[in-house]
């Protein structure tokens, strides 16, 4: 501050030579301490909010990227080749087994069609008349009007059927002649087109029923729809489509051309390179996320450092809890996986068993990140590599990453796994030790509510006497259904596992972390925003109030010292006048 003011008059200590500016500036500076502290706090909170918002976006991106590989079909990549792609191609899913299949396409599935003779631009000239046609067992009516063109007739036929048939008009390019075609939309036998006598006559070129067609006019004969006929691995088949997915498990055959007598070989193989690429992508994405956490915790801002703002998130407990949660998912045994080599057990239950390890070497720049080398020994001092494990049992490897609710029983002669409601979010992944007494099971009636011990706790279970299917009604196993095979008297037990791979488990953890209302980072961001923007107690409100207080004080001080300056100036004038009078009086004496 360089000037004083009082009303609109500016004073600068010109009378008394007293520097009131310094006095006011020092006072205001002292009084602005609280405002400055609030300003630092607002800068700190804003910076942290921005950092957490960025971290939340990073986590959401990671989640979205993982969703491209969270099913067995996406992770366990199969590849398929055809010896004659112009005749047959194929696509595969994870259920497809490696091997070769032979196909012969004798006939493609087709739709019903009918084509008119060569007819003129105007198709009908007589009085308007309702005419009918049939398609797929349904009858449709077309109002054929006088002067209706061939194109208008085609549109009227398609519209009458609700576009269940499609029509087209081909300009033949001579003598203003056209051909009208009608096509059904359903492949396979039985979806046929029929024409009433009147409509058939119009399509044969009769514009007016009063004018007979020439006797040599040939009848229009609709072509019926047909099934595809093929031979798969020596078995003759018919299907109502040229896409056949119910013959070989996991394989869909796409029939492109009929070529009787030609054998096409379809070969299904595991695409090891694509699976390795998925693993490497998973490791890369995870490491990028961990780098993102490190950047947020260790971020440096020179401007804020100069201002003395304490913005560091390094010791933030919420960030650490999220980090630990995600790391723990990848470091622990998969939910529902049972280690061992017996029936119902799994060859691999952790990522580390497949050679994906966390770097624990102190001083390593990648400390805390994952490392993976497909050709390195999985176990220190061992000889088997990831590629060895993958080629020996690709399904077992893929399950560790992407199992999604697959169920199994440790003893199918006691309890046989039936189904679960995992996909609906009811049945949680994990292992369920189920114990019951066969002698107490109901034997009459249809459905009963009973209890069984599940992981040592009594749970309500629905039991169907005729099917012997039991369905758990509560707890983490809710929706789990299994067949009770051993109903003999006495205590029986078996363990049913619902598997969940590490990609799916990570996504589930991320769902909780990023939940729109209660997610960890969302709650943090809301807290920061409230600290800054709350209209009653937010930092911006406190800063505004404090600034208003200091500004008011400054104005009061300016007015006060201006008045003081004025008073002192008056006294100085009086003093000067008295001194002048005294000197004058002394001079006379």
UniProtKB/TrEMBL annotation:
One of its GO terms (biological process) is cell adhesion. GO terms for cellular component: bacterial-type flagellum filament cap; bacterial-type flagellum hook; extracellular region. InterPro entries: FliD (IPR040026), FliD_C (IPR010809), FliD_N (IPR003481). It comes from the Bacteria. The keyword Nucleus does not apply. Keywords: Bacterial flagellum, Cell projection, Cilium, Coiled coil, Flagellum, Secreted. Residues 17-110 form the Flagellar hook-associated protein 2 N-terminal domain. Residues 226-572 form the Flagellar hook-associated protein 2 C-terminal domain. It is found in: Secreted; Bacterial flagellum. Required for morphogenesis and for the elongation of the flagellar filament by facilitating polymerization of the flagellin monomers at the tip of growing filament. Forms a capping structure, which prevents flagellin subunits (transported through the central channel of the flagellum) from leaking out without polymerization at the distal end. Belongs to the FliD family. This is Flagellar hook-associated protein 2. It comes from Halodesulfovibrio marinisediminis DSM 17456. The lineage of its organism: Bacteria, Pseudomonadati, Thermodesulfobacteriota, Desulfovibrionia, Desulfovibrionales.
